[in-house]
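Why do we bother with a discrete structure alphabet at all? Because it lets us treat a fold like text: something you can write down, compare, and reason about line by line. To make this less abstract, here is a complete entry for Squalene synthase HpnC. Read it the way you would read a sentence in a foreign language you are learning: slowly, and without expecting to understand everything at once.
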Amino acid sequence: MSVQHYENFPVASWLCPPALRPAVKAIYWFARTADDLADEGHASALERIAALEAYRYDLQSVARGHAPSPRWQGVFEPLTGVFRRHHLPLPLMEDLLDAFEQDLRQHRYHDRATLLGYCRRSANPIGRLLLHLYGVRDSLALERSDAICSALQLINFWQDLSVDLPRDRLYLPLEDCARYGLGVDQLMNRQDTGATRALIAEQVAWARQLMGEGAPLVHQLPGRAGWELRLVVQGGLRILDKIEAMDHATLRQRPRLRAWDVPVMLWRALRM
């Protein structure tokens, strides 16, 4: 299973225990479909919000053990069995839907705290759901998972500035922008200057620090899960390397991982 739209979701690869792959895939398709409802096509914001509300109703229905409606049967039929077998925490699934709806209503964030509040709903539930499947419950592991997932979300933001800004989505904290003398109009026009690059460099350092705080989680997860997480962490850090290598000019272009980055990530994962 490859991940294209929902980039913060770890791949259900050969590293994932076979017994958990159906559950991971079911959660992935739930998140992927919600993402498409929020972002794909030509529907209005109000129509997207209405679709997400109907999607939420189906989620709540299957969580109570009822049969899914025909509209998203391919998503919710597998998820019904996952709820039954693994007792998934419904609030985490609903947090993801809250984040998708938030993206339709809010396109600016005043400071880092409010942006992390968005990450708490958009990214952190994925890590917590995976820890739930692996039976990891302790508070330190959850905190480290949140740090990794929030870092991945931030990295995706700084990677995708050239994509998000034309869609009127500005995730750079306005408080940080103001410290560099940058107004919203300058950023929305993607004016690549020394000030914008310095701002992005600071955001990159923030994401790297957050990833470092969560990285010890790789040693708390059993077997294959720990190795998969190593690659997830190193993938995020490699994107930060690429942003730094292009002198933080992500207002102009989007850095990508290439095939030749894989050996670097594998080597760094082995050294963790």
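What the structure line is telling us, in plain words: The two ends are 25 Å apart (CA to CA). The domain at 108-272 is CATH 1.10.600.10 (Farnesyl Diphosphate Synthase).
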